[in-house]
Write the structure tokens for this entry.
Amino acid sequence: MTERLRIALQKKGRLAEDSFSLLKKCGLKFSIRSGGLLARVKNLPVDLLLLRDDDIPTFVATGAADVGIVGENVLVEEQLSSPSKLDADIDIRLGFSRCRLCLAAPSGGIIKSPGDLNGTRIATTYPGVLGRYLSKNNITAKAVEMKGAVELAPSIGIADSICDLVSSGATLEANGLAAFVSILDSEAVLISSSRALSPQQSEIYHKLCSRIDGVLKSAETKYIMLNAPVEKLDEITALLPGSDSPTIIPLAGTEKLVAIQAVCTENIFWETLEDLKALGARAILVLPIEKMMS
Ligand code: ATP
Ligand code: ZN
């Protein structure tokens, strides 16, 4: 049994850069050569397998890789279209490459809602997810399976609508299409199989998961510092989002003001800062947190 942990990643595309960057933030040192299929991590016993995203769930399920990073959309599609149960499941949702699998039809046309799909043709590269949606909603429509360029299908007359990934909607709009329902929300996910890892691989994987957790938490967590009038202390600390027990420090030369410092585990919006200021808080600083471990 190999002792190095093999992580399957997308070689090139919309998941690749953010996947590399997440692993780098976790302290893994590696360089990606163009055309390379394997990158060795220099400071940990980890190998990166560089693949097409569609192959990642199967690599993980068959044991050709131990774990992988892939879009949830691709994982679910492979799970639904695989002839036997695919042994690959989500360990951590990673929060990047967010997109939705949507049904879309020509703007101003006759298809405006799922109920209009009966007896029509829908072009897609996601026959599994589309099929599940259609049967759950008792819709009888024909899935036209394509390998790509799905958004062109209605204009060239091979389908009446499409089922495709959407993030901003700009591609749909450019092709005269409008989304009318979303059938799957997706983001990048870390996946593994139920197969046991060797003790060393398992130790590395645990370490990696805990570092990923730390990276994801620190992305949302901020350190806030401010000066506050003593009589508004309770109201001000109640406004600090997701902070347990802030540190209160006396300030030199005054008994009316104190300094407050706190770790906020939720986003601090401009509105919160404005509310703090209205309560008399001054010198408000919000700082990013680079690493966290609890
Ligand atoms: P490959 O050559 O690896 O097969 P691909 O062309 O199938 O690549 P990409 O376009 O790179 O795939 O998209 C990879 C994944 O990124 C998608 O499966 C989805 O999870 C996510 N994704 C797709 N479109 C977007 C988008 N517009 N914004 C963010 N993430 C997206
Ligand atoms: Zn792909």
